[in-house]
Design brief:
Strand order of the largest sheet: 4-3-2-1-5-6-7
Shape: globular
Helix content: 40-55%
Low-confidence stretches: none
Radius of gyration: 21 Å
Largest sheet: 7 strands, parallel
């Protein structure tokens, strides 16, 4: 069997470590050519010892420390910073780039991988939220496949397989509802950082866990779905599904629906992406529906989860509004994790900013962030506007 070369950005995060679990389940199938991380050198050193990559990329200023901790005279080529992550994304020995960096920092490495003709297994929401039109256009021009790793988009990707796109009516993204789906609105003022980080179904990093709690995570997925599957906002629905068993579904013009069900474990969508159409062992067990007993579905309460409606609003505003929303949200989540603002301040302050953008559009002001994003610079400018504006409040 010819091995398939993998380049993994964000190898020490939850998606990266799950990807390496899938690699372990398929011995001899994959060659881990490159690994990239920010600062978790302890785990990276373990990964280097096990998978023996040819190249690694670390955060700015961390290369010397890594070199000193590796056995003398051995080890991979070491790259640093954003430039190093982009170089890793283009490394000649890898055919597939697993893009699992967190936040807007992942967009340039993804673009670098596209330009190098890599297949992109995309787990970085912000890349599409910031510059979905640009990313999809560049991928199409280079003949590059963008394979969605997020469980919901991966479910849509699986459910569309073998069907004609012109027969599609709409898609339904499912959401767990996070830790506060059953909390009454009046108790939201009591939410603590610990409460918000206690997701009932998924084990994820802190940023995405907070986004799940506010349902901004689902809002970002709505924006992603628009670009990944070339949809109108009106073709995207969201339902709360507490069990997280149906990961999403598609509905066709004849009224039939096809969905993907499975355990809430990221190894399943990762394995589907790495297999590129082939079903690989993931290490995840099969469903036992009788044991689950019931699957429940509810309309999302937008009074409690206003961030979801803000994502739809940003899509309708157009231009760089989604990039501004993403940048502002990243800043607010960081402040919340640092306990400098309360959980409820995230949706409130984002709502104020979106109100400002709505007023700008009504006045015919189509400068940043409402101007079209024709380039990465345009998208990053809109993102920066959102960050600066939200921090001024």
């Amino acid at each position: 069997m010819v091995t398939h070369g993998l380049l993994i950005l964000g190898s020490t995060g939850s998606i990266g470590t799950s990807t390496l679990e899938v690699v372990r389940q398929n011995p001899g199938r994959f060659d881990v050519v490159g690994l990239g991380c920010g600062a978790n050198l302890d785990l990276l050193l373990q990964q280097i010892a096990e998978f023996k990559p040819q190249v690694v990329a670390v955060g700015e200023g961390r290369g010397q420390e890594l070199a000193e901790r590796l056995p003398q005279g051995t080890g991979p080529v070491i790259l640093e910073g954003l430039k190093g992550q982009c170089q890793l994304a283009q490394f000649e020995g890898g055919q597939t780039l697993v893009a699992a960096m967190v936040g807007a920092a992942g967009i340039e490495p993804v673009l670098a991988g596209i330009e190098a003709g890599k297949t992109i297994a995309l787990a970085n929401k912000e890349t599409i939220v910031l510059a979905g039109e640009l990313i999809m256009a560049r991928a199409a021009a280079k003949g590059v496949s963008i394979l969605p790793v997020d469980s919901e988009h991966n479910a849509i990707y699986q459910s569309l397989a073998g069907s004609r796109r012109e027969d599609l009516s709409h898609i339904t993204l499912t959401a767990s509802g996070g830790p506060f789906r059953d909390w009454p609105l009046e108790d939201f003022t009591k939410i603590t950082r610990t409460d918000a980080l206690n997701h009932p179904n998924w084990a994820m990093g802190p940023k995405i866990t907070i986004d799940s709690a506010t349902m901004m995570n689902k809002g970002l997925e709505v924006i992603e779905a628009k670009w990944l599957f070339d949809l109108h906002p009106e073709q995207i629905e969201v339902v709360i599904h507490p069990e997280s068993i149906l990961h999403s579904m598609v509905t066709f013009k004849d009224g039939s629906s096809i969905g993907q069900l499975g355990q809430p474990d990221m190894r399943v969508p990762i394995a589907y992406c790495l297999g590129q159409g082939e079903r690989l062992p993931s290490g995840v067990g099969a469903l036992k529906l009788a044991q689950i007993g019931q699957l429940r579905f509810f309309e999302p309460d937008l009074r409690k989860f206003g961030c979801l409606s803000l994502a739809f609003k940003a899509l309708k505003l157009g231009g760089g509004a989604t990039a501004a929303l993403n940048g502002a949200n990243e800043e607010l989540v960081g402040l919340m994790l640092a306990e400098k603002i309360h959980f409820t301040d995230i949706a409130r302050r984002l709502g104020d900013m979106m109100g400002q953008l709505t007023q700008m559009k009504s006045q015919g002001k189509f400068e940043t962030p409402l101007a079209p994003c024709h380039s990465l610079a345009d998208a990053l400018k809109a993102d920066a506007w959102g960050r600066e504006t939200i921090l001024q409040k």
